[in-house]
Amino acid sequence: xxxxxxxxxxxxxxxxxxxAHLDDEGEFSADMPSQFAINDINKDQADIAxxxxxxxxxxxxxxxxxxxxxKMPPSSNAYPDIPAAQYESKELHEGYKGNLNRYAVxxxxxxxxxxxxxxxxxxxxxxxxxxxxxxxxxxxxKISYKHIEKAARQLTHVIWRHREALWPDGVPDDPAELxxxxxxxxxxxxxxxxxxxxxVIEGDIDVAGIIDKDNRTAELSMLMSxxxxxxxxxxxxxxxxxxQQSGLHRDKPLDGSGTGPxxxxxxxxxxxxxxxxxxxxLVSRRFNERFPSELLQRDNLQHILNRNKNKRIEKELSxxxxxxxxxxGLDSINGEAVFSLSEQFKVSREAMAIRLEExxxxxxx
Length: 365
Description:
Elements: H1 5-15, E1 21-22, E2 28-29, H2 43-52, H3 59-62, E3 85-87, H4 111-118, E4 130-132, H5 145-161, H6 163-166, H7 181-187, E5 191-195, E6 200-201, E7 205-206, E8 209-212, E9 217-221, H8 226-242, E10 248-251, H9 264-277, H10 280-290, H11 298-305, H12 311-317, H13 320-329, E11 332-333, E12 336-337, H14 341-344, H15 349-358
Parallel strand pairs: 5-9
Antiparallel strand pairs: 1-2, 3-4, 6-7, 8-9, 8-10, 11-12
């Protein structure tokens, strides 16, 4: 049944959902179109997009390739059907029972009936409880990096979809702010707490994070720096999504630097944290905005990174990792303070440097 245009417009206005539209078969859908229409973005969003140099502030987070496209299932249930991820039908939060998905609208209901059934959008920002099906492993029980990255992208898409419910007091302007492990835990139904200390392991190493999958709890140590807490939290989210663990699992401090020996379980969780906190498209876009091609020429790099031609700094810049570190942590250009790439993504300079190398963004010096 095709929904009348006036109902589509009315639903968009009521739900503040610019993605309500008629699908290719003429049916009503509240799924995200394959391409954003700039006319469907409100003025504030368009202004933000213009300031950041692309059409929509969350375009990169919402971008989907053919193999991870989020589609609405054909049944009456309006929850997004996400490959490798699903919503627990028996454990949905109260506000979502009865098909009250804030991204789907029953076109034959008037506004009063919808609001009386589900409450106002802001007052009932309940979330569906997300669970991932077991990821594909090889003969040794290992998950490929490709599948890990895909799982991280899928989680990012769900956060993007439910950003207004996750941030009821206002969605952050910066898409990088949505890469929030604590919000991911919220979607997964976990309770997160921060402790002054979580004890020690291996004699004298402070525990940075603990996850208990049986009771859906995660704990973070406040002894750690913000970037270590953030990376450790994302690492624990990786465990929650990918690994079948029971009992308490304790982790050492993690900053994404890749130091120290790890078994494949820990390595997989670390790669998940990298892909979630530093998604390829968003990092590449921010890097290219900060460092256009002409700025990456040697003379210009030397001007912004080593104007005094210090020999020690020059030697460090001559290595790919040294140059990556300098670009990842650069917080001043021509005397003007800027947020470094590592600060924008709330990771350590070393983690960002490694990611820039992985994405082949570091030029020859």
